[in-house]
Write a structure and sequence with these properties.
alpha+beta
Amino acid sequence: MYLTSSRGPSRRVRSTTTVHAENAWSKPASREIFDAARSETKQWVEVTEASHFDMYDLYPFVDEASEAIRGFFAEKL
């Protein structure tokens, strides 16, 4: 991932948040990507009892994920 600033492109990502469903088929890949991220600040959010598709549009899963993202952005941006 490349970020640009007035000093040019940077390969460093300062903050990373990963939100996924507890029962998602993609959980191992999500964890691998999260662990490999070279971020100064990392947040791992696991939405309990949710499946991959539950995260698209089912209450309360979407609300929980959205709140985690909102809180992370409010604190880190």
